[in-house]
Design brief:
- Helix content is about 65%, strand content about 10%.
- It has 18 helices and 15 strands.
- It has a six-stranded antiparallel beta sheet, covered by helices on one side. It has a six-stranded mixed beta sheet with strand order 8-12-13-3-14-15, with helices on both faces. A three-stranded antiparallel beta sheet has the order 9-10-11.
Length: about 775
């Protein structure tokens, strides 16, 4: 894990938003006066990853919120194997004094976890819990020499806690529980074996023998069943033969001539004679009708004759009406009426003109009335020389004349219109009559027209009467013929049914080969069949006696075969219902199933015996493990190995940090210093100077971090950063210089190294420093590059 950026707002002394950019840094210092908030930067980083600050307690998060602030937000960007990650946490106070928190872990824009799952996801990414992280990545202030100066027992307790050796107690308890469980399973297997006491190889052999015996029965039983089946078939055939002969004997004995055979034959002869007479009468009627129809074809039809008579009458009437129209008289009357109307029009116009003239004079009189000499003329506007003198005209006489002329004109106009209408109607009637006459003449051209038309109509009527009589005669003859045919057909059906009964009876006797019948004489056919049946009855009686004897012997043999088969099955112990083969098959299947169950139980028994032995073995091993873990030998050995590994790792670091001047060694369970400059003298760690103590403590702390990383997760990501939060102010100048060289060496080894110090001389030797400054509104951070 390599840090890149830390963003803080409302966290501890940092009230406003602060951003710390670690990108591209290998070595830097967090510096500032005591209480400015240097360690709070490391607290914010740990809080972003794990949601708590160790010095406040893992479950106490409200102290991280700045005083006077309602919430805090911390964001941390980092990389693992080149992949970027961002974790953001927010804590907010509610109105009741409690806090609510939110968290989110992202990578390349994808949300990997949120809420309570973020801490688990971070632990999986880093391979470290918060305790391991604060001892391998963040080395807290004041803890460097605590492990070095502790007692051996205290050192062992710390290693036990760091290595989580409490798991040994868990393993011991699990071993004890497993011993109990395995013992119980072994006891259960023993009880199950007791239930299978009767499952033995002998029982399996006996079951196999029964199965073999039953399987040997399959073929003999099948052959016996086939023989019985053949015998059953033979018995059935013999019984069928007896039934057949009995049936034929009953049938032959029932044959006699039906009573209605003679009646049907006589009626059939009578109806055939009547049909012949009806056919002769029908032929004669048809001949007479054809002769009359031939004569009728030579004469015009009644319809044509009547049509010609009717057309001639209508034509004569149309010609008479056309002659009665008197068109010339109507034309002359119309001309006279026209002339009278024209004269009336002229007289009316003249009276109107006279009236207008009188009206003009009357207008002048009206204008002059009341004028005197010197008045202005109403026409020319000039003064009058004298008063006008005008006689008043008489209008009534002229108006009366105009009215009289108008009445005469109207009367003349009405007479003219009447005459013209009469002439128009007469001309239209003549045109219609001309069309009718032409149409009738055209129709008459296709009709028979002669002078003796009336005589032809009389002859046509007489011939039509004779044709009607002939048709009625033919119709009656045909009805008689149809009745004769129907009666004969009905009787022929009766005869056909009688022949069918005869055929059915003879077909039922076909096996006995009766004589062939005469097909044209029903009475004779029945007489011959009845005589033949009387002789056949005696022969069938003899056959029936013989067939019954053969059937009885076959039934006896069949019963003997069935008894033999049942005896064979009883000796084999085969019971049940159904066919013998099916019963044997069921017995074989049951024997197979019994053998399979027995073999399965035998296999189960072997498995239980193996399980019993295995569970007993597991119980013994688990019990032994539990006993071993109760003693302190294993734990002491494990602690010794862990301390040896820890010292070995510290020596690898000390070899570089002290130029091979010092190393550590275990004397029993106590860590001592080997002074290589004084002939490898062993001395107590308490004899080390301040600077020497710092170097040894730092080596042990780094070794602890490396070992914790290994123990925490074999797949943990490589830790690429370390933060040293230590009181460097207590070191002298020479030791301080040594520390500078050490941390520079650490940075050169590929880790990002961050030093938290208020020692100005040390901070100024770092290539980059983040200066933390307190203020009235909260602390601030400024990045300074050398």
């Amino acid at each position: 894990m390599r840090p890149e950026r830390l963003t803080i707002e409302g966290f501890a002394p940092f009230r406003d938003r602060i951003e710390v950019d670690f990108s591209g840094l290998d070595l830097f210092a967090l510096t500032g006066p005591t209480g400015a908030g240097k360690s709070s930067v490391i607290d914010a980083l740990v809080f972003a990853l794990y949601g708590s600050v160790p010095r406040h307690g893992k479950k106490s998060i409200s102290p991280v919120i700045s005083l006077g602030k309602a919430q805090t937000t911390v964001g941390f960007d980092f990389r693992i194997d080149g992949r970027p990650y961002t974790v953001v946490r927010k804590v907010q106070r509610n109105t009741k004094g409690g806090v609510a928190s939110e968290a989110r872990l992202e990578s390349d824009g994808d949300v990997l976890a949120s809420g309570a799952e973020v801490t688990q996801a971070v632990e999986a990414l880093l391979g470290l819990g918060i305790d391991h992280f604060t001892r391998s990545v963040v080395l807290p202030q004041g803890e460097f020499a605590a492990f070095l100066h502790d007692t051996p027992a205290g050192q062992q307790d710390l290693v036990k806690a760091l290595l989580d050796m409490g798991v040994l107690d868990t393993v011991r308890k699990l071993a004890t529980e497993r011993a109990k469980t395995a013992g119980a399973l072994a006891e259960r297997a023993k009880l199950a074996l007791e239930a299978l006491e009767e499952v033995t190889p002998e029982a399996v052999a006996a079951c196999s023998q029964r199965l073999a015996t039953l399987e040997e029965l399959v073929e003999p039983v099948a052959e016996a069943e086939q023989s019985i089946s053949r015998a059953e078939t033979f018995v059935k055939e013999r019984n069928d033969e007896v039934e057949r002969v009995e049936r034929l004997a009953r049938l032959v004995g029932s044959i006699s001539v039906p009573e209605d055979v003679a009646v049907v034959a006589d009626e059939l002869e009578t109806l055939q004679s009547a049909l012949a007479d009806a056919q002769q009468e029908c032929a004669a009627a048809e001949a007479d009708l054809r002769a009359l129809e031939k004569t009728s074809e030579a004469l015009p039809s009644r319809t044509d004759l009547e049509s010609a008579q009717q057309v001639i009458g209508r034509l004569e009437e149309a010609r008479r009406r056309r002659d009665d129209l008197a068109i010339e008289d109507l034309e002359q009357a119309a001309q006279v009426a026209l002339e009278e109307w024209q004269a009336a029009v002229q007289s009316h116009e003249r009276s109107q003109a006279d009236l207008e003239s009188v009206r003009d004079r009357h207008t002048a009189h009206a204008l002059a009335a009341g004028l005197a000499e010197g008045d202005e003329c109403p026409v020319c506007s000039r003064p009058l020389d004298e008063a006008p003198k005008i006689q008043v005209p008489d209008l009534e006489e002229k108006q009366a004349a105009v009215r009289a002329a108008a009445d005469a004109r109207q009367l003349a106009d009405e007479r003219r219109k009447v005459a013209e209408t009469a002439l128009t109607e007469a001309r239209a009637s003549r045109r219609a009559l001309d069309e009718t006459i032409a149409e009738l003449e055209e129709r008459l051209a296709g009709l028979p027209v002669s002078d003796d038309l009336a005589d032809q109509l009389a002859a046509r009527s007489e011939l039509d009467s004779e044709l009607s009589t002939a048709r009625s005669r033919l119709e009656g003859a045909r009805e008689s013929l149809d009745k004769a045919r129907a009666s004969l057909a009905e009787r022929e059906q009766s005869a056909a049914r009688a022949w069918e009964r005869f055929g059915e009876m003879r077909d039922r006797l076909a096996a006995l080969e009766p004589p062939p019948p005469p097909r044209d004489d029903l009475r004779k056919a029945w007489d011959e069949l009845s005589g033949w049946a009387a002789g056949m009855a005696e022969k069938l009686t003899e056959q029936l006696i013989e067939a019954r004897d053969v059937a009885d012997r076959a039934r006896v043999a069949l019963e003997e075969q069935r008894a033999d088969l049942e005896r064979l099955l009883g000796e084999a112990g085969v019971e049940g219902n159904g066919s013998a083969s099916a019963r044997v098959a069921v017995a074989v299947a049951e024997a197979k199933a019994a053998l399979d169950r027995l073999q399965e139980r035998m296999e189960e028994k072997r498995s239980l015996e193996a399980d019993s032995a295995e569970f007993s073995k597991q119980a013994a091993v688990a019990s032994s493990l539990g006993n071993h873990l109760r003693a302190n030998r294993f734990e002491a050995w494990l602690l010794a190995e862990a301390l040896a590994t820890l010292v070995e790792g510290a020596n690898e670091l000390l070899d570089d940090l002290t130029a091979s001047a010092y190393s550590l060694a275990l004397s029993g369970q106590t860590i001592e210093v080997v002074d290589h400059r004084n002939a490898d003298e062993l001395r107590s760690v308490k004899s080390l100077s301040g600077g020497e103590t710092f170097l040894v403590s730092l080596a042990l702390a780094l070794s602890l971090g490396e070992q914790l990383t290994t123990v925490a997760d074999k797949q943990a990501a490589r830790l690429e950063a370390i933060f040293l939060d230590e009181g460097f102010g207590s070191l002298d100048a020479e030791t301080l210089e040594t520390v500078t060289v050490v941390v520079t060496e650490l940075a050169a080894q590929g880790r990002m190294v961050g030093i938290v110090t208020h020692v100005k001389e040390l901070a100024e030797q770092m290539p980059v420093r983040f200066e933390v400054r307190p203020g009235p509104d909260g602390s601030s951070i400024e990045k300074v590059a050398v």
